[in-house]
């Protein structure tokens, strides 16, 4: 099971901040994961936006980055604190 | 030192502690960011801040290390809230100490620009009419870009050495 985290506005789109998912064996990189989840969540492209970065096991990666079934994968819209 | 905290903190206590730690410095600069009670036409009822530990802490540690490389700081303190807070509550506290004021001012400014546009936080504003996620404004990004466009500060240090 992969741990998927949805931060910021993507938590509202996904309906949760975090969940464990069985990612299909055919999904082997972050670009494919974006497309699969966008369809699963009927997100109308929210997971495909270029401004949304992905982190695999706490490291920000560039698409397409390989993923394994037990990774922690975070969807990160533009950040900013203060 | 860097602290992320889900509990309210006192900037005046943080500053008093920092002044003790920085004793001997000729200049101490501190900045406190507070939750506004208005956003456009709406009354703000609260703010929710998400972080992604330990990525958030790692990023701030790196920005602090960059600031120390760039300016001759003798002490540095960052406190950032997470979770839910109300209007007028402190969100962020940054303090820097150096022998002279310019380095302390610039380093605090640099760190705040990092925290506004690059630190790993997500911010949601709650108003009477609903809630919305806030992303950095164009102005925040252009403020932050000042530190990469020029190496003025580094050059000045080089000249003084």
Overview of the molecule:
The complex is a heterodimer of chains A (82) and B (161). Chain A is globular. Chain A has a single domain, classed as Beta-grasp domain (Ubiquitin-like (UB roll), Roll), CATH 3.10.20.30. In chain A, 21% of the residues lie in helices and 26% in strands. In chain A, strand 3 and strand 4 form a beta hairpin. Chain A contains two helices and five strands; from the N terminus they run E-H-E-H-E-E-E. By secondary structure, chain B is of the alpha+beta class. Chain B has a single domain, classed as Aldehyde Oxidoreductase, domain 3 (Alpha-Beta Complex), CATH 3.90.1170. In chain B, strands 3, 4, 6, 8 and 9 form a five-stranded antiparallel β-sheet that branches. Chain B has a four-stranded mixed β-sheet with strand order 1-5-7-2, sandwiched between helices. The model of chain B has no long low-confidence stretch (mean pLDDT 92). Classes of the chains: A alpha+beta (82), B alpha+beta (161). Chains A and B meet through helix 1 of A and strand 4, helix 3 and strand 8 of B.
Provide keyphrases for this structure.
A: alpha+beta; Ubiquitin-like (UB roll); 5-stranded mixed β-sheet; B: 161 residues; alpha+beta; 5-stranded antiparallel β-sheet; 40% helix; globular
Task: Itemize the secondary structure elements and their pairings.
The complex is a heterodimer of chains A (82) and B (161).
Chain A: E1 2-6, H1 9-14, E2 18-21, H2 30-40, E3 53-56, E4 59-61, E5 72-76
Parallel strand pairs in A: 1-5
Antiparallel strand pairs in A: 1-2, 3-4, 3-5
Chain B: E1 2-5, H1 11-21, E2 27-34, E3 38-39, E4 42-51, H2 55-70, E5 73-81, E6 83-85, E7 90-98, H3 101-117, E8 121-127, E9 130-134, H4 138-149, H5 152-160
Parallel strand pairs in B: 1-5
Antiparallel strand pairs in B: 2-7, 3-4, 4-6, 4-8, 5-7, 8-9
Helix pairs in contact in B: 2-3, 3-4
